[in-house]
Hints:
It is a single chain. By secondary structure, this protein is mainly alpha-helical. The chain has a domain at 59-160. The chain has helices at 6-49, 57-73, 76-83, 87-99, 111-124, 128-134, 139-155, 157-160. Helix 2 crosses helix 3 (76-83), helix 5 crosses helix 7 and helix 6 packs across helix 7 (139-155).
Amino acid sequence: MARLSLATRKMKKRKQYTSLVLLWLEILNIIDLFFQIICHLLKYHREKYSLRKSYSLSEHTKWRIDYVNGLIRESDRKCIDHLRMDRHTFFVFCSMLRTVGKLDDSKHVPLEEQVALFLNILAHHTKNRIVHSAFKRSGWTVSEYFNKVLKGVMRLQSVLLKKPTPVEGNSRDERWKWFKV
Length: 181
């Protein structure tokens, strides 16, 4: 049998390499198609059997910012209705809590929202469950920041509360005549 020429042998090897590369590309295409099918099935399953509608973080964050800004920056009437103090008093109270009360913004909840949660609970005697749905925060978050603001308010007691002085027994003030024995 005669030997093939060098050019023919190179051509034959090139065809073998080409067919081998094409075979590998086909195998990789099949594997890629398999993973795409698995991903689509998982996505379909998650969407079909998910109990809650998923929201992006930015939607919740934008809604919260708008809600709190509506409470504390929109009008004095709305601020008084929800928090029982006007806007100026609210911001003075927040600055006192920052300086004397040693409170600050957390990573996810600004101090103004923390104070608004606190005042809303006190002003309307609302439950944790009501406030967490109104402010779109978890019950744990509402409870945590209510307690933090309460501790800050307790640190303000020396500034906000006047120490009472006892009334003398021989006081001539008309307000105290009803308490004499």
